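Hi P.,

Sorry for the delay on this. The queue was packed all week, but I finally got your sequence through. Input first:
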Amino acid sequence: MASMRIETVIVGGGQAGLAMGYELRRRGRPFVILEAGEQVGDSWRQRWDSLRLFTPARYDGLPGMRFPAPGWSFPTRLEFADYLQEYAERFRLPVRTGVTVKRLNADFVLETDDGPYRPDNVVVATGFDRRPRPYGPGIHSSEYRRPAQLPHGDVLIVGAGNSGADIALELAATRRVMLSGRHPGQLPWRIDRPISRVLAPPVFFAFRHLLTARTPPGRRLLEHSGPLIRVRNADLAAAGVLRVPRVTGLDDGRPVLADGRTIDVPNVIWCTGFEPDTSWIECPGFDGTHRRGVTGRPGLYLLGWMLQHVLASSMVQGVGRDAAFLADHIAHQLKRRG
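Then the structure:
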């Protein structure tokens, strides 16, 4: 099959890929966005039913289009998924849905189930959180949808970050829940209270300008999960969630805690986070590292990575600035090549 020639292929049609498309279109550069989902926004539609964004709507817009909701409301996963679809339609971004990228080979050809693409540039915008970290018997948080999907009985949730706390609080209404892991701390205020309108702006300023991979606080965020944002420790205690030590291993498939206890429950949910997946990138010159999204292989870029430039780089509010930087870099390189 003949390969399709295109100046830039963006892999991933989520918020990062759409922001990248918007910035390339502003510069008059040709591109296509390849999205594995059947619809733009499907990665959000597949998350658990009660999920809401942690950031107010005023910080949830991509370049050129604000989020259509009251500024201090918190959109649901479906509302944000629909916003992404509307964004792609409004700016007529060329998104090809239902296309799975298999690998980027040594000849810089993208092999997909839609045939091969031979681009000058590839922007990997699949997101930092692509592959669930290794876990044991049970389900990962990416597979959790609602309480009714679980068999009757107790639940052990492994991982006490934001996902673990949110799911624990939801499940505690109908069953006994144990939450394993280090308490990561919490914001000192409730994000849905009026005080948040005063405190949130300087926090998001720090996310966009101060917390970087070059500062000690930024590096610590790479090593540990951030504080609890919506759910507080007092909420978990009031709901009857039992805190237990971290899981250190498995005994015949059953989680073993740091105090030596073995937990035998019918339901285990592993909220152990994700890691980036670049195993499909096989071209020489790429070793997984980058400088603000520019890799060692000319023409290959990353977008939406954790602390790509600042903490907000992997968030909706920050990905647009990184997309503009990469679009300028691509345009400059093409101009240099004549």
